[in-house]
Each structure stands twice: as structure tokens, then as C-alpha cells.
């Protein structure tokens, strides 16, 4: 948004002087300045409340100090024994 130049500011002040009159113009200017000051204070308070302190320092390198090669050997499982036809896995089962 472009800022108004000096000519635009003079036109705005002349229109405000015609509408408000010379008696009320200082009061309106003071109230407007106070409002802008309070708005800036409130926005800076909100920014301070929302500000998050993030630690951007590098993390310690924990992977290289704890990386030990896995030297355990795995034992192969025993192969399954074939089951004879007609036999059951329950030794107490009764054959018919």
C-alpha cells in the first residue's frame, strides 16, 4: 500500500478542518494519537507473549559415540521334523 504524499496529507487535513472545525480538531488529533499509541503497545505485548525461545544450538553427536557394531551371532533354528501320517501332536490322544 503506497504511503500518501505531502499533497494528499494537506488535502486530508483541509477536509478534516472543514468537517470538524478548528475547535475540535486538536481534541480529535489527541484522541487519534492516544489510540495509535495504545494499539502499538498492545501489539508489542502480544508479540512478546507469543515469542518462542527456540534453542538453535547444535545437538551433541550421540550416534557416533554409541555406535557399536553388532557382533552377536544368531543361531539357526532347528528344522522341523516331519510328522508321520495318522499321528497326532497330542500324546494322550486315542486312535480310533
Your description of this structure?
The model has no long low-confidence stretch (mean pLDDT 78). The protein has a domain at 24-51. The longest helix is centred in the middle third of the chain and has 26 residues, at 25-50. It contains 3 helices and no strands. It is rod-shaped. It has 96 residues and is mainly alpha-helical.
Jot down its keywords.
mainly alpha, 96 residues, 0% strand, 3 helices, rod-shaped
Quick summary:
With 96 residues, this protein is an all-alpha fold.
3D shape: rod-shaped
Please bin the fraction of helical residues. Answer: 40-55%
Instruction: State the end-to-end CA separation.
Output: 97 Å
**N-to-C SSE string, H for helix and E for strand:** HHH
Structural Rg: 43 Å
Q: Report the strand count.
A: 0
| Beta content | under 5%
Low-confidence regions: none
Q: Structural class given helices, strands, pairing?
A: mainly alpha
Helix run count: 3
List the SSEs and their pairings.
Elements: H1 6-20, H2 25-50, H3 62-66
